[in-house]
Design brief:
Keywords: ATP-binding, Cell membrane, Golgi apparatus, Magnesium, Membrane, Metal-binding, Nucleotide-binding, Phosphoprotein, Translocase, Transmembrane, Transmembrane helix
Distance between the termini: 43 Å
Helix content: 40-55%
Membrane topology: Multi-pass membrane protein
Number of strands: 35
Main location: membrane
Structural class: alpha+beta
Largest sheet: 9 strands, mixed
Number of helices: 41
Strand content: 15-25%
Radius of gyration: 38 Å
Strand order of the largest sheet: 14-35-34-33-15-29-32-31-30
CATH superfamily of the domain at 441-456 and 467-604 and 620-693: Calcium-transporting ATPase, cytoplasmic domain N
Enzyme class: translocase
Shape: elongated
Subcellular location: Cell membrane; Golgi apparatus; Membrane
Length: about 1200
């Protein structure tokens, strides 16, 4: 009764909510999408579809339309989808399909010579182990997803703020997001703690841009600053359906009894972005979960990836199946021929029975008999080995990041060996290569270079600051009235230093915030924040900003500068200027930007009226600054030049009127503003230059150099600006100074096609090889380049370049670039990133590696492997990748080898058994061959074998490249060589014992041996031979490999001793009774044991000895040098060794040099090579909220609202 009552109340509350929404919708009236939501025809709010506009009611707990919840998942499986998806994945492997067929055939009575369950039970075991592994790995993904879904945010419900989990956030909820936290869904900004509803957001997790972006609430909602006002806020929002366009949004806000207003991208706060420099914002949820733009840009479901070895094995198994089928058909035919020839002479065999004449019956018998040529144990061995290998990755202390307490994590084990085959690395920039932290490092002022102040401790333990720049200022001021020419130069230099430091403190759009007697700087541009922080270290402190002036504290003196005009930075202008009135009443323009644009605006003569300062000194000043800029750039630092000029009052008044006219122009405004800015940004006086470090992650340049030496091509895919991306290319040594840059920024498909084709023609015959050239392309041009008609030309051009950098690219474009390689080249791709914008490319690449960032986990959750730092990629590939690749190749080849060695003997025995399908070996011996007697060697080599030590692999990246230079451990040729080798061994292992037992041998018990004794002879020699073969291919012997190799042989001897004595104590193994005594008492057996396995392996030993002496591989040479405690690196430098022993080593030497040589094509291409001066500056462009609007809105003397 209570349950029924509860359900009734729930139903009633639901009905009441829906009635409330309906009445609410009628009150608000109709909505139209166009023209800002003007009056139009009624549109029922309850209609909703994926392709329809959605209507969202603010502060409504239940929406009339059904929207997706805010739960997101990057896992492969759900509870319902696991079984079908898992079975689909497993039966994509031809081997599993084959064994399922065999298992079904064995259920037919009297068909199977090996029993009904010898295939079915192992198959079920294999699938169970695989299922368990997939479940364990997917549980880890679900837990990582839960870590995000269970984050909490404040939501306004039932008239109060409640902390709820992200997954419970619903469309229509009003949420409060605090500073330095991520947005839980896509929101419309209602209001914020900042003036005029402004807020700063960081979108590095979405588009890779390092600068902050400004979002501003609509004026109609910007005054909703407390809970009561929000609760009384009644409105609905009509907006477009979910889509993946990060920078586009169209919506309409309609309040009760108010005019509809348009909403755009400046009111949109995206999931994955972070609130910065803003205490709090109020927003209403419009898209949740997989409807958010972030998730729309990602692959809908996690892909089921397979390794290259898996795909290659699949095709070879198919080939083996056809060969097996041919053998079975031939055997069935031979059976018919033999039966017809002997049915009268051998009447006692019952050859006239129908079953002996049934071709199909005999065919199925042989299929079942020979099915073990394809190793059923291979899959379970692979699953177990891969799982343990993944555990080794997780436990590697060398890839543990102590600062964040983050270990490496293998989220899938199916791609372990793929890590050793990587040809392309696609990497994000922000957060992956860089820390997204800008730091002021050095400056050049008046032709002299200065470092940051150095803290020193005097004899009394008091900390002081030693600053050469401040000392020069103070010294110059002290001698300003001196007539001495040297003193006058010091005074002039001090004046330049002071003006330079003032400019650092004034020429920017930074907002100061005073907190507990300290100042925190908030800036949309990380470069500007670094500059202001740098000035503070020199005791020039930016203190106050109001809409009309700024105040700085310069060496203890408070100075006020009136802000007259701000000419904003754009990528085209490459500069930013501020017109100020100084405390002395002078009007000055302060201009900072790229050296190329600043230098062309300098006055030809120095405006400082100093009689002894001649033109030569001016040129030296400029030349010295250029030299310093080159030095900064060579260190990978971001540079800016600073210059100023004094403007007469009448000139400024005239210019201000012109600038105002340009601002209010309704046509051609941008060009007019640029022309007007050029009028005043002229005849400048150079002050100096700054060097800012965009801090790289630890050991990024070293890691990139190692990857390049390993013949891995590196492409940088970033959403950041072109200048910033190029600058990072220099700082991480991906681009070298003097390297030609192909910069492709075109506005149409035709122009893009023309440029790409011309570049390809410029390369000429060198188009097919790699050239020392860097290709840089922006996102809009990339769209054209990836179009169908020039896609392949673009691919050829990229392949001919050493470096490819794609700038301003969207998440989908990143995935498309990765797909360009994966779909058109036989290459293994790896994508690495840390942000949500990297998920699409991580899922598209063969291997996805996520950086477990301090703030974001989306990339790590969607990845196959996660690491804490980019530098760990080197160990992941060179150590674990190389080890796992060689291990898995050996394991796979050895598994096929050992099966063919034993089971092809059934074919040779069929010749002597009248093609009857009779088995030579006892059934349990056949069943335990893969499970017990030869199971340990492949496990040991798959887990513990090492070609070289970790230290050698890390020190010599060229070893990783050997797989591309003729030393591949696994390919079609190698596979079939092993198959042929196994066929030779199987024939020797059958015919040699048969020859030894040609004459019947009567044993001590008066019996002769029979076919089963021959089978035990052969079986013993097979076990010894395949175990010894394992010993030949194992490189590193440990107690585990010794135990696995020799222990397997001992196990067989123990088994035959025990099993031959089971019957009649146990009703099993009757046919084996006494076989141990006959075997162990036979001199023939022991003599064969000494002679036959070595004879079989003689060819293998000979080939290996000759190869390691005459055609020694680089890998083998490195291993031998390591064993001899010599430096393995000598093999890359010893010319005599390379020329006399191996062509492969010469090729590998070229791997090291190919990245440092200059291609002949580089001198022919139509590219101007300029020495880089390292200019880069990050700031949002094109937003509706300009930087001028921002600084005019702030008065840091006023308190901010509390938002309660």
């Amino acid at each position: 009764m209570e349950v029924a009552t509860t359900k009734l109340l729930q139903w009633f509350n639901e009905l009441r909510s829906r009635v409330h929404l309906y009445l609410h919708a009628q009150t608000l009236g109709p909505i139209r999408a166009e023209n800002g939501g003007s009056q139009g025809e009624d549109q029922p709010p309850t209609q909703h579809g994926d392709s329809e506009e959605r209507v969202i009611f603010v502060n409504a707990p239940h929406q009339p339309a059904k929207y997706k919840n805010n739960h997101i998942t990057t896992a492969k499986y759900s509870f319902l989808s696991f079984v079908p998806l898992f079975l689909f994945e497993q039966f994509r492997r031809y081997s599993n399909c084959f064994f399922l067929f065999i298992a079904l055939m064995q259920q037919i009575p009297d068909v199977s010579p090996t029993g009904r369950y010898t295939t079915l039970v192992p198959l079920i075991f294999i699938l169970s182990v695989s299922a368990l592994k997939e479940i364990v790995e997917d549980i880890k993904r679900h837990r990582a997803d839960d870590e995000i879904n269970m984050r909490e945010v404040e939501v306004l419900r039932d008239g109060r703020w409640q902390w709820i989990q992200w997954r419970a956030v619903a469309v229509g909820d009003v949420v409060k997001v605090h500073n330095n936290t991520f947005f839980p869904a896509d929101l419309i900004l209602l209001s914020s703690s900042e003036p005029q509803g402004m807020s700063f957001i960081e979108t590095a997790n979405l588009d890779g841009e390092t600068n902050l972006k400004i979002r501003q609430a609509h004026p109609d909602t910007a005054n909703l600053l407390d809970t009561a006002e929000l609760m009384n806020f009644r409105a609905n929002i009509q907006c477009e359906p979910p889509n993946r366009h990060l920078y586009e949004f169209h919506g309409v806000l309609r309040e009760t009894n108010k005019q509809s207003v348009a909403l755009g991208p400046d009111q949109l706060l995206l999931r994955g972005a972070m609130l910065r420099n803003t205490r709090w914002v109020f927003g209403v949820v419009i898209y949740t979960g997989h409807d958010t733009k972030l998730m729309q840009n990602n692959t809908a479901t996690a892909p089921l990836k397979r390794s290259t070895l898996d795909r290659l094995i699949n095709t070879q198994i198919l080939m083996l199946f056809f060969i097996l089928l041919l053998l079975c058909i031939l055997s069935a035919i031979f059976n018919v021929v033999w039966t017809n020839a002997n049915k009268h002479g051998l009447w006692y065999l019952g050859l006239n029975e129908e079953t002996t004449k049934n071709f199909a019956y005999n065919l199925l018998t042989f299929i079942i008999l020979f099915n073990n040529l394809i190793p059923i144990s291979l899959q379970v061995t692979l699953e177990v080995v891969r799982y343990v290998q993944a555990t080794f990755i997780n436990m590697d202390i060398e890839m543990y990041h102590a600062e964040t307490d983050t270990p490496a994590m293998a989220r899938t084990s199916n791609l372990n060996e793929e890590l050793g085959m990587v040809n392309y690395v696609f990497t994000d920039k922000t957060g992956t290569l860089t820390r997204n932290v800008m730091e002021f490092k050095r400056c050049s002022v008046g032709g002299k270079m200065y470092d940051l102040p150095i803290p020193v401790i005097d004899d009394e333990g008091v900390s002081e600051t030693c600053c050469e720049l401040i000392e020069d200022i103070m010294e110059g001021r002290s001698v300003r009235d001196s007539p001495n020419p040297i003193d006058k130069k010091k005074a002039e230099h001090a004046a330049v230093l002071h003006e330079f430091m003032v400019m650092l403190s004034v020429c920017h759009t930074v907002i100061p915030e005073k907190v507990d007697n300290s100042i925190i700087y908030h800036a949309a541009s990380p470069d500007e924040r670094a500059l202001v922080d740098g000035a503070r270290k020199f005791d020039y402190v930016f203190d106050t900003r109001t809409p009309h002036y700024v105040e700085i504290v310069a060496l203890g003196e408070t100075l006020r500068y009136e802000i007259l005009n701000v000419i904003e930075f754009t990528s085209a202008r490459k500069r930013m200027s501020v017109v100020v009135k100084t405390p002395e009443g002078k009007i000055k323009i302060l201009c900072k930007g790229a050296d190329s644009v600043i230098y062309e605006r300098l006055t030809p003569t120095n405006p400082i009226e100093v009689s002894d300062l001649d033109q030569e000194h001016i040129d030296d000043f400029r030349d010295a600054t250029l030299e310093h800029l080159e030095a900064f750039a060579s260190d990978g630092l971001r540079t800016l030049c600073f210059a100023s000029a004094e403007i007469p009052e009448n000139v400024y008044q005239w210019w201000r009127e012109s600038y105002h006219k340009a601002l209010i122009s309704t046509s051609n405004r941008e060009n007019m503003l640029e022309e007007t800015a050029n009028l005043i940004e002229t005849k400048l006086t150079l002050l100096g230059a700054t060097a800012i470090e965009d801090q790289l992650q630890d050991q990024v340049p070293e890691t990139i150099q190692s990857l390049l030496q390993a013949d891995i091509k590196i492409w940088v895919l970033t959403g950041d600006k072109q200048e910033t991306a190029i600058n990072i290319g220099y700082s991480c040594k991906l681009i070298t100074h003097g390297m030609p840059l192909y910069i492709i920024n075109e506005s149409s498909l035709d122009k893009t096609r023309e440029v790409i084709i011309q570049r390809c023609l410029d390369f000429g015959i060198d188009l097919k090889c790699q050239n020392d050239v860097a290709l840089i392309i922006d996102g809009s041009t990339l769209d054209f380049a990836l179009s169908c008609d020039i896609r392949m030309d673009f691919l050829e051009l990229c392949s001919a370049c050493k470096v490819v950098i794609c700038c301003r690219v969207s998440p989908i474009q990143k995935a498309e670039v990765v797909d360009l390689i994966t779909s058109n080249k036989k290459a293994v791709t790896l994508a690495i990133g840390d942000g949500a914008n990297d998920v699409a490319m991580i899922q598209k690449a063969h291997i996805g590696v996520g950086i477990s960032g301090v703030e974001g986990l989306q990339a790590a959750c969607a990845s196959d492997y996660s690491i804490a730092q980019f530098r760990f990629l080197k160990r992941l590939l060179f150590v674990h990748g190389s080890w796992n690749y060689s291990r898995m190749c050996k394991l796979i080849l050895y598994s096929f080898y050992k099966n063919i060695c034993l089971y092809v003997i059934e074919l040779w025995f069929a010749i002597y058994s009248g093609w009857s399908g009779q088995i030579l070996f006892e059934r349990w011996s056949i069943g335990l061959y893969n499970v017990v007697f030869t199971a340990a060697p492949p496990l040991a080599m798959g887990l513990f074998d090492k070609v070289c030590s970790a230290e050698t692999h890390l020190a010599h990246p060229g070893l990783y490249a050997t797989k591309n230079n003729g030393e591949s451990f696994f390919n079609i040729k190698v596979f079939w060589i092993w198959i042929v080798n196994a066929l030779i061994h199987s024939s020797l292992l059958y015919w040699l014992p048969l020859l030894a037992l040609t004459q019947d041998v009567v044993w001590a018990n008066g019996r002769d041996g029979g076919y089963l004794l021959l089978g035990n002879f052969v079986y013993t020699y097979v076990v010894v031979t395949v175990c010894a073969k394992a010993g030949l291919i194992i490189n590193s012997w440990t107690w585990v490999t010794h135990l696995a190799t020799w222990g397997s042989i001992i196990l067989w001897f123990l088994f035959i001793f025990i099993y031959s004595n089971f019957w009649p104590v146990l009703n099993v193994g009757a046919v084996m009774l006494g076989n141990d005594k006959m075997l162990f008492s036979s001199p023939v057996f022991w003599l064969g044991l000494i002679l036959i396995p070595p004879a079989v392996l003689l060819l293998d030993v000979t080939v290996k000895a000759v190869k390691n002496t005459v055609w020694k591989s680089v890998t083998e040479a490195a291993r031998e040098n390591e064993i001899r405690k010599s430096d393995p690196g000598v093999i890359f430098n010893n010319q005599d060794y390379r020329s006399s022993l191996t062509e492969t080593a010469r090729l590998l030497k070229n791997v090291k040099s190919v990245f440092s040589r200059r291609s002949n094509a580089a001198s022919r291409v139509n590219v101007e090579v300029e020495l880089s001066h390292g200019f880069a500056f990050s700031q949002e462009e094109g937003g509706s909220v300009t930087q001028t609007d921002v600084i005019r809105a702030y008065d840091t003397n006023l308190p901010k609202p509390g938002g309660m």
